[in-house]
Amino acid sequence: MRIKNGIILAVFALSMIGFSSCKGGKGNQSVSSATGWEYNTPDNGGFEYKSGYEQETGPGLVFIEGGTFIMGRVEQDVLYEWNNSPRRVTVPSFYMDETEVKNVDYREYLFWVNRVYVDYPEVYRKALPDTLVWRRPMAYNEPMVENYLRHPAYSEYPVVGVNHTQAQDYCKWRTDRVNEMILVNEGILEFDVNQQNENVFDTEAYLYGQYEGIQGKRPMEDLNPNNESRRVRWDDGLLLPKYRLPTEAEWEYAALGLIGNSYDERMTNRRIYPWDGHILRNADKKERGKMMANFVRGTGDMMGMAGDLNDAGDITVDVHSYYPNDYGLYCMAGNVNEWVADVYRPLSFEDMDEFSPYRGNIFQQKVLDEEGFIVEKDSLGHIRYRNETDKDIMNRKNYRTADNRNYDDGDAVTNITEGSSWVDSQSGTGNMYSGAPNSSLGSLVSDRSRVYKGGGWRDRAYWLSPGARRYLDERESRDDLGFRCAMTRVGSPVKGKQ
Predict the structure, then answer these.
(1) E strand map for 31-131
(2) Which residue among 131, 135, 176, 321 is least enclosed by CB atoms within 10 Å?
(3) What is the C-alpha to C-alpha distance for residues 256 and 254, in angstroms, rounded to an integer?
(4) How much helix, strand and coil, in percent to the nearest 5, is found in the chain?
(5) What is d(CA 367, CA 375) in angstroms, rounded to the nearest whole number?
(6) Interior/surface letters 422-432, b for 16+ CB within 10 angstroms, e for the rest
(7) CB atoms within 10 A of CB 28
(8) Category of 139 on φ-ψ map: left (φ > 0), alpha (ψ -120 to 50) or beta
(9) Do residues 113 and 173 make contact, with C-beta atoms less than 8 angstroms apart?
């Protein structure tokens, strides 16, 4: 018995030696591998480190595992625009809304803005969708003008009449409301329905100490021995990244849903639409012949014949209509077109990055005072930003200008402004242009031109392909154009894998 107990003690001692030798290694993050100091204890000053982080999926979002794909048009370019020639790119993993943003979602936003910004009614007016987009000179669409946004019959239908700028404002608002609710649910803040005007929760303002709020019953414990509690920091991993519009590459990648057409890094077949095959009808036995999306089949045929309406959508339809694609996303073809973040250029496929391509960067910095501290918020409670100056960029090697919307777009015509001079690249002769800017010599494409994709209820099948792309001024809107939000994935591109 004594020998047996001795063996047990020896094994235990050896296991403890092995454990102590591994402490602080890759499998155990309680001790710094650089200094040997223990993390997360006030005895060592209270430096906090949380290992094993896994991003939570935000409300309404679906995880999109990224990868490489051939971006661009795969069907015949019957309009001969040649504005999306195929090229291989890599899209990092991200999240995207399962559906288009609904009328009820946008009405919630409008209600909040109207309730909170009582001293700034122009904020509410600026956020209102343009319901007059439904009007046509030779059609009776007044019922849509009066009912589509507000009536509960259309609550689950996609919001339309929203321009690109309004869509971005909605994404910003949604980010703040989701992160505010996270802090409330954690007990760090109390829910404050009386916040108004500039005293509103803003994610960045909170992180930079510009918003206090009402402290909750479970404040964040500070392991720094000099403090009792603290506000949440970004390195806690508690708050979610920004909701935003997807880039064109992200949208096209998510729409194709090629995760359902691959096996061991081999893609079995490409897709013209977000579903298999080259036809627009369902091939399944039980649903054979039914349309896969809401679009115009032919002149004057918006939904089929009474008694057996095919796509059952005279205008838009419920956002959960039809089958989702292989990522679980609804209506990535038809119903409404969707804004994406990119600035439009016909030759975007030539001026691109292989990883996460996007045109539209305007690099900014927070507005700081003379001592380097963040200045007060603006009148709506947001942190102030400014475009980077030449002085800020002086020693940069990876970019040379703050506004990159017009990056490497050096054609003389679209850069002409009144009174400017230019040199013809063919003849070498110069000229002074004195006419109005962007007149007959100009272009409809500008730095305000934004891409939209997906096809809508007014479109023929040609536009349902994810590779098709069109553009519209970011200040304009349409009755067949909506949007959905995306969110950056941080950490591993594979969900649940560290």
Answers:
(1) 61-64, 67-71, 87-91, 94-97
(2) 135
(3) 6
(4) 20, 15, 60
(5) 6
(6) beeeeeeeeee
(7) 12
(8) beta
(9) yes
Pair 471, 445: CB distance under 8 Å: yes
CB-hemisphere CA count at 13 Å for 349?
16
What CA–CA distance (Å, rounded) separates 384 from 380? Answer: 10
* Amino acid at site 307: G
DSSP, collapsed to helix, strand or coil, labels residue 465 as coil
First to last CA, the chain: 45
Which residues touch 54 (CB under 8 Å, ≥6 apart)?
A: 491, 495, 496, 498
Sequence-ordered list of residues with C-beta below 8 angstroms from that of 300, at least 6 positions apart, any chain: none
d(CA 194, CA 443): 48
Instruction: Give the CA count within 13 Å in the CB-facing half-sphere of 410.
Output: 5
pLDDT in tens, the chain (498 residues): 444 455 444 444 444 444 343 333 343 468 999 999 999 999 889 999 988 899 999 999 999 999 999 999 888 888 888 888 999 999 999 999 999 999 999 999 999 999 999 999 999 999 999 999 999 999 999 999 999 999 999 999 999 999 999 999 999 999 999 999 999 999 999 999 889 888 899 999 999 999 989 999 999 999 999 888 899 999 999 999 999 999 999 999 999 999 988 888 888 888 899 998 888 888 888 888 888 999 998 899 989 889 888 888 999 999 999 999 999 999 999 999 999 999 999 988 888 899 999 999 999 999 998 888 888 788 888 999 999 999 999 999 999 999 999 988 765 544 544 444 444 434 444 444 344 444 445 678 999 999 999 999 999 999 999 999 999 999 999 999 999 999 999 999 999 865
Contact partners, residue 125, CB within 8 Å, separation at least 6: none
List C-alpha distances in Å: 121 to 47, 117, 128: 45, 7, 11
Could you give phi then psi for residue 475, rounded to 5 degrees?
-95, -5
Question: Which residue's structure tokens are 């409670």?
Answer: 381
CA distance 252 to 261: 15
**Contact yes or no for 9/18 (Cβ under 8 A):** no
